[in-house]
TrEMBL record, chain A:
The gene is ycjP_3. This is Inner membrane ABC transporter permease protein ycjP. Its main location: membrane. PROSITE patterns: ABC_TM1. It comes from Bhargavaea cecembensis DSE10. InterPro entries: MetI-like, MetI-like_sf. It holds the Pfam family BPD_transp_1. Residues 93-283 form the ABC transmembrane type-1 domain. GO terms for cellular component: plasma membrane. It is a multi-pass membrane protein. Belongs to the binding-protein-dependent transport system permease family. It is found in: Cell membrane. GO terms for biological process: transmembrane transport. The keyword rRNA processing does not apply. It comes from the Bacteria.
From TrEMBL, chain B:
It is an enzyme of class 3 (hydrolase). This is sn-glycerol-3-phosphate import ATP-binding protein UgpC. SMART domains: AAA. Keywords: ATP-binding, Hydrolase, Nucleotide-binding, Transport. GO terms for biological process: carbohydrate transport. It comes from Bhargavaea cecembensis DSE10. Its EC number is 3.6.3.20. PANTHER family: MALTODEXTRIN IMPORT ATP-BINDING PROTEIN MSMX, OSMOPROTECTIVE COMPOUNDS UPTAKE ATP-BINDING PROTEIN GGTA.
Length: 298, 375
């Protein structure tokens, strides 16, 4: 009996469709396409880095061969030692770190202080002043290059680190803007509560402003570190004494007038790049946040 | 001991928007003053002026004989509890409560003693190491109170501190704040738009409207003798019923011609006050309109047949929506009866307890019954 009824029931036949017509199948196909595209993009982006790496371990002879090789005949890791010994790179590292750390400190604290003022301290002409600060972002840096050089020359700051470090203690429009946006998200009541509890604006900034804007400060710190570490033009313009050279200037020893020692230059560049890459891996989140802040998103 | 005088205080924004107008009030030590009124009435602005967060446009704020107008908030020795608690999110409960003391350079042991003591009063001992985000709304509110308590300030200001809590918690915290005030006796100025909070917590209520004080008085006085129709309508829930009409021959006659006889004494007092004849507004609280019972001694009831529009059972009582002629009314009656829409009931108005206001200005007619109260 049971069997009969089972047989009598009309069979529910699945419609025949190919795997890619099902929702699941489509999703899989899309995934595959995404991965392929992303992989292709990554390879494209990483290829210069790869090129640097293989060049850095080649002999000068192999560097010059045509057609170029993408896989070196021999991996000469000793190039790195030779590179480091070719110039006083230890000294340059210390120099660069000194400048970079000072610039980061200046940028983080001074810009944060100014941004707090623009966001949380009402005063007459605040908006106008802020607009003026922002307008400095519209002036291309190269326009002010010569007047700035003349100014620093008159201050007798040439061949010192002052022109590279001191400006960081006078605020930068971009960082002020970025931090101000962040401060705006802190409720005024918090500031008012602290005021009533006996804190001055300075203390409110120090005890409440700074800790609450940590993510934005990290972004500022990373951008400043990057900028100062990679700065080539600044040291080139203002520093002549070889003892004051930074890493970026030091790399120039491999670039002669007649020929360039590409393998050593690439080895040096990779070494100099290393801290930035490491920084990026650890603080990726804040890099992206920084870009978000720039675009006004949150 | 603190004595606060607010003299002719005004606040004007951009020269033409007036938020507070000619505010006068003396606050005695231990007072719990509640500023109450609809939103935009200037109560919060007034509080912020006392705090020093807003400038006083005109007038004087004197505390213990010292003019405070230009004293910065940090030097005023006033603690404030904000609507959103304004706890520092990156600090623990302990640090939140200790902040003001640290700013004032108290010794570590003293800070610890005071914070622990406040935490004990507020039942926060187990939460001192937590950050505010790990606390419930009620606990955050307690921390905000604790922050004020540890300072031992001369004056507490509270700006709608309960409005972010759910109904049950609000009820509970209301009682706790009252208890706290009874214990600490710190002079407090409390702002709310909730008349129930005002009635239950205040030693004196200040009712404001459009930046102007409408009435100042103890909760019971304000409830029993509202100065004008605004106060009558604002204080009390459900609101007082108002009927427009006129007085003639010892009777109140509604706009629809319904006659409600006045008690002899009241009729005479009105005559004496110059309102023996002419238009007035009558106000009567919902609890003074009842289903007609036999009049007790000394009561003067006027009964009228009315149709039930809606009857709402709230639990212990029933709110009866009806009409007197064409004018709507609410009566608060015992919930024993099952009243249906469309049914006719006979409603009695306790005319002895009815209020009368000038028909045009809305001001209370001075009939001499307020003589007993002291403002």
């Amino acid at each position: 009996m049971v069997k009969q009824t089972a047989a009598a029931r009309p069979k529910l036949s699945k419609p025949k469709v190919s795997h890619f017509e099902t929702i699941q199948g489509r999703r899989q196909a899309l995934n595959v396409i995404n991965w392929v595209l992303l992989a292709a993009g990554s390879i494209l982006m990483l290829s210069p880095l790869w090129w640097m790496l293989v060049t850095s371990v080649k002999t000068m002879q192999e560097v010059m061969t045509y057609p170029p090789t993408f896989w070196p005949e021999s991996w000469n890791w000793s190039n790195y030692m030779k590179t480091w010994e070719a110039a006083p790179f230890d000294l340059y590292t210390v120099n660069t770190l000194t400048i970079t750390i000072l610039v980061v400190i200046g940028n983080v604290f001074v810009n944060s202080f100014i941004a707090y003022g623009f966001a949380k301290v009402p005063f007459k002409g605040r908006n106008a002043l802020f607009a003026i600060v922002l307008s400095t972002m519209m002036i291309p840096g190269f326009v002010t290059l010569i007047p700035q050089y003349v100014l620093f020359a008159k201050l007798q700051w040439l061949n010192t680190y002052y022109p590279l470090v001191i400006p960081a203690f006078f605020g930068s429009a971009f960082n002020i803007f970025l931090l101000r946006q962040f401060y705006m998200t802190i409720p005024d009541e918090l500031i008012e509560a602290a005021k009533m509890e006996g804190a001055s604006h300075f203390w409110i900034w120090w005890k409440i402003g700074l800790p609450l804007t940590k993510p934005a400060l990290a972004t500022v710190a990373i951008f400043s570190f990057n900028g100062a570490w990679n700065d080539f033009l600044g040291p080139l313009l203002y520093v002549n004494d070889e003892n004051l050279y930074t890493l970026q200037l030091g790399l120039q020893v491999f670039k002669g007038q007649m020929s360039t020692q590409w393998n050593y230059l690439m080895a040096g560049s990779l070494l100099v790049l290393l801290p930035v890459i490491i920084l990026f891996f650890f603080f990726q989140k804040y890099f992206i946040q920084g870009i978000n802040l720039q675009s006004g998103g949150k | 001991m603190v004595k606060i005088e607010l003299k002719n205080i005004s606040k004007t924004y951009d020269k033409d928007v007036t938020a507070v107008k000619d505010f006068n009030l003396e606050i005695e030590d231990g007072d719990f003053i509640v500023l109450v009124g609809p939103s935009g009435c200037g109560k919060s602005t007034m509080l912020r002026m006392i705090a020093g967060l807003e400038e006083i446009t005109d007038g004087e704020f004197v505390m213990d004989g010292r003019l405070m107008n230009d004293v910065p908030p940090k030097n005023r020795d006033i603690a404030m509890v904000f609507q959103n608690y304004a706890l520092y999110p990156h600090m623990t409960v302990y640090d939140n409560m200790a902040f003001a003391l640290k700013m004032r350079k108290f010794k570590k042991e003293e800070i610890k003693k005071r914070v622990t003591e406040a935490a004990k009063i507020l039942g926060l001992e187990d939460y001192l190491k937590r950050k505010p985000r790990a606390l419930s709304g009620g606990q955050r509110q307690r921390v905000a109170l604790g922050r004020a308590i540890v300072r031992d300030a001369k004056l507490f200001l509270m700006d709608e501190p309960l409005s972010n809590l759910d109904a049950k918690l609000r009820f509970q915290m209301r009682a706790e704040i009252s208890k706290l005030h009874n214990r600490l006796k710190t002079t407090t100025v409390y702002v709310t738009h909730d008349q129930t909070e005002a009635m239950t917590m205040a030693t004196r209520i200040v009712i404001m409207k459009d930046g102007v004080i409408q009435q100042v008085g103890a909760p019971k006085d304000v409830y029993d003798y509202p100065e004008n129709t605004f106060v009558g309508g604002f204080i009390g829930s459900p609101a007082m019923n108002f009927f427009s009409g006129e007085v003639r021959d010892g009777e109140f006659i509604t706009a629809d011609g319904i006659r409600l006889p006045l008690p002899e004494t009241k009729a005479q007092a009105m005559k004496a006050a110059g309102y023996g004849e002419g238009p007035v507004t009558m106000g009567i609280r919902p609890e003074h309109v009842t289903l007609e019972p036999p009049a007790a001694a000394g009561q003067s009831l006027a009964a009228v047949d009315s149709e039930v529009i809606v009857s709402e059972l709230t639990g212990a009582e029933t709110l009866l929506y009806s009409k007197l002629g064409s004018q709507e009314l609410i009566a608060r009656i015992d919930s024993g009866l099952d009243l249906r829409t469309g049914e006719t009931v006979r409603l009695a108005y306790d005319m002895e307890l009815a209020h009368f206001f000038d028909a045009r200005s809305g001001d209370r007619l001075k009939l001499g019954e307020e003589a007993a109260i002291s403002v």
